[in-house]
Amino acid sequence: MCPFKAFAATPTASSRPILWMACFTVLATAQTPGPSQKSRLSSEPGTAKPPSAAYTQLQSRLAQGWNTWDVNSVTTHVLLPEGLAIHVGMKHNSTLNGEAFLADALIGRFGNGAEQVFPGPHAWDGSYTELRVDWKGHSWRIRSAREGNDLLLVAAPLPSTPTTALPLSIVFSVNFLWNSPGTTLKHPDYIETHGPSGAVPVYCTCALPQTKTENENVSIPFGGPYFAVDFTAPVGVSTGKRRTLSEIESAIDKQQQVYRESVQSAGNTGPIVDAIETTVGWDTIYDPSGRRVISPVSRLWSVGWGGYVLFDWDTFFAATLASIGSRDLAYANAIEILRESTPQGFVPNYARSGGWKSFDRSEPPVGAITVLGMYKKFQDRWFLEETFAPLLDWNRWWATHRDIQGYLAWGSDDAGKPGNLDDHQRNDRAAAILESGLDNSPMYDATTYNAQSHVLEFADVGLMGMYVADCDALAEIADAIGKSAEAKELRDRGAGYRTKLQTLWDDRAGIFLNKDLHTGQSSPRLSPTNFYPMLAKAATPAQARTMVEKHLTNPKEFWGEWVIPSIARDDPGFPDQNYWRGRIWGPMNYLVYLGLENYDDATVRGEFARKSYSLFLREWNDKGHVHENYNAISGSGDDVTSSDRFYHWGALLGYIEYLERSQAVGSSTR
């Protein structure tokens, strides 16, 4: 989700960072930029308490060994905690004009001449990874594995139709990232490295005794020592000790089999587990500024935001996805987004490198249901104790800052602080809509913003449904850790908003309707958020049945081959198929599915899960794409450039089917 007006401009197809700069183009009414900053770091105070010993140990476990940690390239392998990196680069050679060098590779990059990466399996811990790259008519595969403390890597050319007569040059460059202490020294047949934990030699099967003329390749734009060779046959790299190509390939094959067996052990959910593990595995990075392992929405977004960007509900959903196979990573994502909470006590819309974040607005409150779901699966009390205080602060903040006439509404504060100096959208209608996470939803086209109360004058069914569910889940967490007073507070507050939410039920429409508090009229525009009272169990069984029969399974509104659109099919905004104007989004499907779980309609729930998974598979099987959003008419994610091609929450469409299949065999999955 774009935190700055994705709908204000049509993105270009030049490159991903430029694309999202276009996505975030501010309307002509934007304010004049504020004062400049003397430092690139935010001056806002941090609010996170020191992490517990249990969480410190967790991050230490995650940040170990070789993995694809570097945000800038999926073909770079990094050893943590040292930061020792082995980069795989490709030089396109020509006898005429047109030479080029591919130092970094990212999944889903747009633009003429951009590399196309097809992600293959990626184990949570990096013990096995595989991908294919196409670029300038060349195609190659890279596989890697961990053997003890060593990295083993093989790059192999694939059949292709290059645009020039000369072969590629493959280059393996070795250095230390993030200004980490360490030295590298090139020897004729290996590269010697020394870091904090000692020496790590790096060997290449290409480093055989050769004459200077045969081995000379001085036009490579890599600094530091490297191996370079014509890429006409497979090439292997290993650390620790010298290995032959066959030894490297054999060791990688063993780890590939281990990965396959782990997927097969999941039974009929195996293909979904593989897809989710691969998606989150490739999107997980190491943030050196915070010394933490995290899973931002995609590498393309994070590169454009200076190293990482964490969005509120996106990161909670990343935690949910990771929970199918990596408890540590699941906990890390939930805890880290809570540690980004502002001094005002809310989880921000976004938090990026440099300490910059949205100090005026939050995003949908899905934290407590995420944390409770993981606790029910893993039963770690310390995790509840680590997360309860920031979740409670956030819950109280909504009631204090976003209540209007007893309802809840989206808003944007104006605390008089400079906040993020380049984010000029605050205390206005656009910023308030951004808090919803549904940046350009037709639901909000006619809303009125009150600059004095800092909220949209719009009672929001979706927000209230999520908030009541948050109260209920957080009360259950409070019970589990002996916070009886807080549990009562939360249940009382949740009951009050549940009662108020019931006043938004419209008998004639057969659904809960948003209410324009400026005019006093109910809004007829329907979105999946109108079903969120089911998430909070705020709808009676009769109301839930009516909503499902009259609206959810109505092909004129939400049902069809591809489900479910972000605005009803008969809404004037649906044909736009522009971001939240009609496209299908994984998080909406997921939250509606959770609501369906609370009511007795297994047939509709099962069909809903099947349809969601079918949409996910459409481009996953063919291209390895996991889209930010999908066209609700064609089912394509590639029809626009405003849908990131490897955005982890797209995998929620598969996770829904994972839950459905797991429930069918009596498993506890959430």
Descriptive report:
By secondary structure, the chain is α+β, with helices and mostly antiparallel strands. It has 2 domains: 16-34 and 291-664, Glycosyltransferase (Alpha/alpha barrel), CATH 1.50.10.10; 80-262, Beta-galactosidase, Chain A, domain 5, CATH 2.70.98. The strands form 9 sheets. Strands 1, 2, 3, 4, 9 and 14 form a 6-stranded antiparallel β-sheet that branches. Strands 5-6-7-8-15-13 form a 6-stranded antiparallel β-sheet. A 3-stranded antiparallel β-sheet has the order 10-11-12, with no helix packed on it. Helix 9 packs antiparallel against helix 10 (381-401) and helix 10 (381-401) runs antiparallel to helix 12 (461-480). The protein starts with 15 loop residues before the first helix and ends in a 6-residue tail after the last helix.
Features:
single chain, 670 residues, alpha+beta, Glycosyltransferase, Beta-galactosidase, Chain A, domain 5, 2 domains, 6-stranded antiparallel sheet, 28 strands, 33% helix, 17% strand, globular
Question: What is this structure's SSE topology?
Answer:
Layout: H1 16-23, H2 53-62, E1 65-67, E2 77-80, E3 84-92, E4 100-102, E5 116-122, E6 128-135, E7 138-147, E8 150-157, E9 169-176, E10 183-186, E11 191-195, E12 198-199, E13 202-204, H3 212-215, E14 226-230, E15 235-239, H4 245-264, H5 270-283, E16 285-287, E17 292-294, H6 299-304, E18 309-311, H7 312-322, H8 327-338, E19 350-352, H9 367-378, H10 381-401, E20 403-404, E21 407-408, H11 429-435, E22 449-450, E23 455-456, E24 458-459, H12 461-480, H13 484-502, E25 505-506, E26 511-512, E27 515-516, E28 521-522, H14 541-552, H15 586-597, H16 602-623, H17 652-664
Antiparallel strand pairs: 1-2, 2-3, 3-4, 3-9, 5-6, 6-7, 7-8, 8-15, 9-14, 10-11, 11-12, 13-15, 16-17, 18-19, 20-21, 22-23, 24-27, 25-26, 27-28
